[in-house]
Each structure stands twice: as structure tokens, then as C-alpha cells.
Design a protein that fits this description.
By secondary structure, the protein is of the alpha+beta class. The protein has helices at residues 3-24, 42-47, 51-65; strands spanning 26-27, 33-34, 69-77, 82-84, 93-111, 119-133, 139-144, 149-158. It is globular and about 40 Å long. The termini are far apart.
Length: 159
């Protein structure tokens, strides 16, 4: 074996070792690194759709109801919720579209309360729409109910 081939074999071996360590390590909630592999239980993966699939479903549902010019959008895990203070122009009308895909439900609320009625959003993939105006600073919060899982896709359209 030539010196160049031996070096290529060592580099490839190191790359495989680094990749293996990367795939089996994960970061815990407090920043500590765990060497435990992340292996979902067979029953969970067989029953629950993947986060990627739920995200695709939620985004497709949003695309079907998209109106006007996109102002702001995102996709969050139900457990993380949505928390945003969009920069809305005074006197303009907007429409908030939400889709929760997964199981359970989430609670949508606005601050100030007069900006919109609080409502429950089912995590069944259906779109929920609310009108907004840019007359005052609005905070939008969507929090998953206890035991809810999946993703929340949302967007704000102008016009």
C-alpha cells in the first residue's frame, strides 16, 4: 500500500469514527452531552407520524389557505409553542393562519385580549384563521394542551 493510500484509509477511518460518535451523542436539556443513542421505542414510531411528515402536512394545509402577502411564518413543536410579536403596520388588515398537526390541541391567545378571541386549535391538521389589525402591538401565543404532540405551522398574511 502506498503512503497516499494509507493516509486516505486513515482519514476515512477517522471520518467514520467521528460520524459514529456524532450519531450516538445527543445534548441534554441542560447542555450536558450524553453518549446514549437516541432510539425511539418501536411502539411510539409505529403509531405516531414523524415530525417531518407532520410538518409537511401542516405546511400543505397552510399553503391551501394562503391569502395576500406573507408577513411572517414559522413551524414549532407543540411542546415549544408559538410566541411572537409581529411587526404589523398601523391601519392594515392581516390574517393569522394556524395549523396544528399531531394529537391533542393547543390554545391560541392574544395580548392585549381585545386583539382577538382566545380559541382552542385542534391538532387534526385543519386550518384556523383569525383577523388581526396593526392598530396596536399584538403578542400571539399558542401553547399545547397537556399531552399534546406534533407541530404548529403558522403564518400571517397582509391584505
Amino acid at each position: 500500500m502506498t503512503h497516499a493510500n494509507a493516509r486516505a484509509v486513515r482519514i476515512a477511518g477517522c471520518a467514520v469514527a467521528v460520524l459514529a460518535v456524532s450519531l450516538t451523542s445527543c445534548t441534554g436539556s441542560h447542555g450536558e452531552v450524553s453518549s446514549r443513542p437516541s432510539t425511539p421505542s418501536p411502539s411510539r414510531t409505529a403509531v405516531e407520524p414523524s415530525e417531518k411528515k407532520l410538518t409537511e402536512q401542516a405546511q400543505a394545509a397552510l399553503a391551501a389557505v394562503h391569502t395576500g402577502t406573507l408577513v411572517e411564518a414559522g413551524v414549532e413543536r407543540v411542546a415549544d409553542g408559538v410566541h411572537t410579536e409581529p411587526g404589523l403596520s398601523e391601519g392594515k388588515a392581516y390574517r393569522l393562519h394556524l395549523v396544528c398537526a399531531g394529537s391533542g390541541s393547543a390554545r391560541l391567545r392574544f395580548e392585549p385580549a381585545g386583539a382577538g378571541a382566545a380559541t382552542t386549535v385542534p391538532c387534526d391538521g385543519s386550518a384556523v384563521q383569525r383577523r388581526l389589525t396593526g392598530d396596536e402591538l399584538v403578542r400571539i401565543d399558542v401553547a399545547g394542551a397537556k399531552g399534546a404532540t406534533g407541530v404548529i405551522a403558522w403564518q400571517i398574511d397582509a391584505g
